[in-house]
## 1
Amino acid sequence: MKIENTTSQLTLFVLVIFLLFHFIINVLFLSFDWEYTINWKLVDYLFTLFLIALLGIIHFNLNEKQFVAISKFGVIFLNDTKFILILLLVFFTLNLIFEVIKLFYATRYLPFLQLEMNFVLSIAITYFFLYFLTKWTNQIKRKNIKKLNYLYYLFIIIFGFIIIIYWISPKEENNSSVVWYFEILLLLSSAVLFSLIFGIKIWIPYTQRRIQKNILLYSFLLVASLIVFISKSSENYSGLGFSNYFFSEFSKFFGFILLVTYIRTSYFSIVSLPFSKVLEKKIYEVNSLSYLSRIVRNFNNLELIYETIAELTFNTFNHSPVWIQIYKNNSFIVKTFKGTSEKQIFDLQSTPTLFKAIKRIKIPKVFGRFIELQGGELENQIQNTIFESFCIIPIFFKETVIGHLIVANTNPYQFDEDDLDLLISYVEALSISIEGNFLLQETIEKERMQQELLLAKEIQRNFLPKSIPKLENVEIEVFFKPSDEIGGDFYDFILLGEKKILILIGDVSGKGMSASFYMALLKGIILSCRRKFENPRDLFVQINSSLFKNIESKIHITMAGLFLDLQSKSFEFIRAGHTPAIIKSNGNVQVFKPDGIGTALVNSKVFEKNLNLASGEVLGGEYFLLFTDGLPEILADKDISEGINKLKNLLLVSYFNDSNELKEKILSEISNKGTKIDDDITFLIIRIKY
Amino acid sequence: MYEKFQVEKKRLNDIEIFSLKGILDAHTAPILENSMKETLENGLKKIIINFKNLEYISSAGLGVFMAFIEDTRNNNGDIKFSEMPDKIYSIFELLGFHLIFDILSNDEEAINYFRQNKLRTNE
């Protein structure tokens, strides 16, 4: 209850002034034995009216706009109940003090003071009752329950009636029992109406059990206090007594209404208490499942899921020991435990028979006695002093049991089949996490491999020439497309003066990182030899002797070299295990395939012995096509010789004006095949202009 | 799962005959490699590889033979190839394997080579 705005504060101030005024007038009445004339009576009535108006102003200026959730109603209700109880206790205590003093000192002012005090108290009590009633009806109305709305208005009307009747027939003049009974009837109906508006049925079930118990206790206390409060006989009022009398009786009305409400509250609290225990458990279960479903996607934090499930199980199963064990080879790891120790868990399963018995469990099961867990055989019983009853739920991953969630208890028959459902839900959530975690790890691994491939691709790119050398009358076209897995294709140009060039093409066996590693090695060897060799054959022999025995025996590198000498107008072609060269000259197409073993396969002697040269004249107009096995393979479904034939034919029959046009012809041939490329494709076209 | 590559081993005294089937590439090469390693660990150094049912061989597949050739030849043994389809032969030929290995028309011929102690050396 907060009085915040200035209007209310001002009214409160006026109220205090008026109470002082009332006190002084009454003192004068008492001291000088004034007569209660008709004029005074008018003042008395107007005074009461004024006080009511003041209370009304304060009331409507109160800031109580905060609306709360139904589940919080109980707490607020309890606090308000306590406050009313305190008010009543203050009332009783102060009166008791006055009565005790009256035993010893009999002055005429003492009863008067007591009356005045009670007047102020009953205004306060009245006011708080009013506040309490309005606040609660507002809260309930806010929930928009239509029936309650109608009841509320009915209550207001009936209560209005009571006040009017009371106003026009004050007690001292009211000798007619008809009016009295009518009044009682109206009061009773308004009380019943109000208790209905209170909507106890609506919010009591949502209230926590602890709060409910408190509400019940305070309701009992309040009911007793209210009965005493209501039954207190009216006193004789002197002086301006009407307002005193009015508020005293008014607070009793409210007290009566609250009495009925609190009796009803007590009744509902008693009725719903046992249910709310079940309800609370169910709510906990639902909450725990929804919580689990939220955290279950933390695939990278399996430990959290294990721990949460153990915690939730521990709480749901009245603090029975719980643990999760995951199998690894012929043993197990305790992922999490609660209410027990790792030693206890391992002690329990220290015998192989028992460990196997648990490990074998494939369907969720309850064991009432330890004997049941051992298969019920009475002979060779293992003595167990740790646990008696068990709930065991298997944890599956890809259709195999990888572990168990175990709830245990030292007492027999602590679990039943109904307990399994919740545990199964927990374990299902766990399985999702485990699966998710597995997939996540897989993805990370894939990502890593992808990263490695990207790196390999970059290395491969870096070892290829950045540009094509310019040579008079020589036109070079390059096509290079690495596969997703990265093959080991490479090419290189070695310029030897202005008129000579050695064009190299090759293929490192193997793929990915290792291929790019050997390519780097090869590039190094070529760089170190490029100024030293006498002829291409010499270079190849040097490369072979550098590689043979120095690299993995499984790995070999095929290479081909085309040496163009425009000064002497000749060419040489050399091949170390590589695909042949196709040469078009004067309308003739020839496949050049001199003997030659791949590098890194045999020693220098054998290599050199078998390495032959093909040579010819360069007169202008020639096309040389160098390629790696990826090209003929894709053109003829991995049949290299067939692919080479196709290329030969292409050069023979199709029409092209320069090397770029030939390149486009080959590329359109590739795209016609439309098959997936799983090797690098590299080819070089060298055209000698006229 | 569909077996992309299969290897069958048949022992004849001190000779082991490998029959290859399917596709021998970078992914399946370890199968043959392990199989040959096993044979060599058992002390057998005379090996015949039958290619009759092999559909494809990649450079990684060729690498497997190179991995063991030195070991066999140094120990009075060899690896001989037989019944090689043309398609496979052209790949061997390109790489120059026909200059390093004996490629024979059938297993009997290969066995005879071993009987007559026609072994190649690393030189």
## 2
Amino acid sequence: MPVTNGNVLEVIELTKTFRDFWGRESVKAIDGLNFDVRRGEVFGLLGPNGSGKTTTVRIVLGLLFPSRGAVRLFGRSPRSVEVKKRVGYMPEESHLYGYLNAEETLDFFGRLFRLPRRERRRRTDALIDMVGLRRARKRPIGQYSKGMARRIGLAQSLINDPDLLILDEPTTGLDPEGSREMKDLLLTLRDRGKTIFLCSHLLGDVEEICDRICILYGGKHRALGPVGELLAADDVTQITAPRLSESTVRTVVDLIRQTTGPESPVQVSAPTMPLEDYFLHVIEEARRERLSTAGAERGTAAAAFLGGEEEEAEQLLDELVGAARDAEEKPPAPAAEPAAAIPVQEDRALIDELVQTGAAARPEQAARPEPAAATPETGVREDVLGELLDNAGQDGKTDEDQAT
Amino acid sequence: MKTKLLNLWRGLLHYLPEALLIFFVLSLAPAVVMVAARLRVETAKMWESPGLYWHATALNPWPAAAAFACLVGAALLLYLLWRNWMVVWAVARKMIIEAFHRKVVLILLVFFVVLMLSLPFILTTEGSPKSQLQLVMLYSLVLAMVLMSLLAIFLSAASICSEVERKHVHITDTKPLQRWKFLLGKWFGVVVMCSAVLFVMTAAACALVLFMARAPDYSRMTLREARKALQGQQELLEEVLVARKSVRAFDPPGMQASIERELKTIEQKGELPDNPRKLRALHERLRKTFLAKVLTVPPRGYYEWHFAGLTPQLEGVLHVRFRGYVNVRQGRLLGMWQVVHRKRVTTEDGKVHYRPEVVLERVAPQYGWHTDVRREFAIPSAFTTEDGQVVHVVPEDGILALRYINLDDEATASFDGNESVVIMQREGGFLANYYRALLVLVCHIALLAALGLMAGSIFSFPVASLTVVFFVVIGLAGAWFVSFAEPGVNVEYTFLQELRYAAWRTFSRSILAVMPHFGKFNPLGDLTDGKMVTWNMVAGAAAMMVFIKASAALLVGMYFYARRELARVIV
């Protein structure tokens, strides 16, 4: 199969306009979108509600047709059957048949890929084990909780051992544990050479697993590039260290000002969620430019009369602050982690070391855990996955292939 | 307990699609065997005298065309199914599970069983076992047919719509399954399920009918009762539980020539209408006039009808049907029926000619008949003459003449020219006939399922179900739909009115051409009347409804479905 310049997915000047009853153009859901997804990367499509993420995914899947522009999957039209053999899709909500149970569902989709009976059975068992639905395998999916439905949704998207996995909000509806498992699984799949294309607005997840992102607003892309690059601020150096005492901080600041000048701005703060800031910054910029979006506008905070929410928040803040050993230097963001619990360490040696080497960690290196480090405590059954993925070449064979 | 039952039901449901498929294939197996046997006979005939065979086919090409279309269509369908069996059957079996999951099939089955079993008690007739049996058979078959038709058309329409609306297609359509195969699988699933259920229902109806027709217990009857019961039983076996072919009498000799002569005279007068509708009407009027003149039997006169295509048989009876009138008020037909053979006579100078010879006098048991209603009497297929010779009523060449002698001294008898006189002869058993009728019903189901899918793949649910209702109404009221705007022949229309009428005619005819038309291939009337449901009818129904109309509907559905955006726009 031809794959042009290593891109699994190419979106070229994609435009989708929706027409009203009389055929007049009413809404431009996507407007001249361009991006590509490279082989073996995790690509995230981000945007606020109504920015065109889902529409883009549906066009990529061939469920909607572009008004202008083109989408090439593996160098072909997304509606080609050959392409569909290599794609797995997990929708945002479970659109599976409620009256089939987990086994029947996977068996049904296995048949659509023309997998022979034994292979279907093997993959069904392995996938059900992998997503942890062994005990619920005989229950109709209609009776599943949302999290379980998401799990079976994931399982069906992997039945054909796809080269490209398309996920719509992969972690929505999952509990924190499930969400962790999902992310670990995606990273594992990436390491095994799969390409993953996901759209989400859970920024923490995206930041954690995506190699490159594209941020959409009003159907246009506002930012596109590797996560690290987009988030890097080149004129600033960030040093991350265990919590330091005030005197240590003062020493460090003095040390820095010795080289950069006495007026140079040095900021000391607890780490924030940089992507979220960046994301909001991008959206704010877009709003300033009065770009239109058909989606939801910015909502207001919850009304004050609603169940004493204000009081509670303040209480929580007090608790956090009170518990902190160094109460005088409040973290600027209330969202700071309860890092106070970490004991203050002896900092002198660390500072010396820093000053001597002058090395500054790149922010993305500090922020992104190595995928290899993340995998050992996964809830995902590595062995099962390995079995599924390793003999991909042989598994990918269908009835027809064997016949020929 | 409830959970256990539910689990058991689910377990059964898992194997149900395969079970239904096997049952469906087994139900069609006799048809394959019978068709193969029939094909062998036809091929043998063709080898024997190709010229004659070709000539006969050219005279009436439709049965051959239908058979050919069936063979080609079936081969194509089987090829498509075989090539894509795994995906098509995956979709089909999911469709079957879905239908049973919705419980609609079960409810319909229970509804049917209750209604069918109560039919013998609900239906009150004049009391003769024959009409009672005919009514029960007709109504239970109509009931099964209507239920399965509704199920087929609504299930198929609703299934596609709900797949799209509940976004199931968002997943299935991203699998390597072409959309046309998706529709083909759905169609196959509906056809397998509805046909299998129909076979079960009609088998039950057949069992009920055979149970009702069982021999009564004569030992507890008086002689009079027993004789009546025996007669009723015989009537059942000879007139209902049988497959008879009906042979119409030839048109009277010289009819065409006479009509043409009359037309020429009218043309010479310059009164020939240039409007084709009026010309047709004139032709029909001339035919009726001619027939009325010829089929009028004066006092002490007689008339002979000729029949061809009957089979010489030793056993059983021939039934003669006719409808007659007299020109006297409150009068009765007073006459005698005779069987006449054409005897081949060679004269002394070697010339051959045929001389009519009465072989059986007084064939009917009575002389007088009520007028204005259809009457029927039986002639034994063979009889023994006084000198002990067995004579077939139908001679070797299959050509038989029937003579009516008017015994009335004053009244003139006349016969209905349209129905004329019909001879019914036993040609096959009841069960095979029943089976052929079922095959025609399966063709109806296949067409309705295709129409439902077409509606469902073009429109969203409310519109699709309305369209489907429209299809059913058209199918039921088809003939009326065309004729209710038929103007009277003698009404003078302006040009505009003529134009409007022609437009309506074209429109309604073309709609009927693609819609289901339950009246056209309806085997139930013939079946309950003990008439043969011919293989020609089965082939015609299969060709027309399955391989032409249903495939056209499916193709239209596939065309639109493949070009449709399956997702809603969310902005």
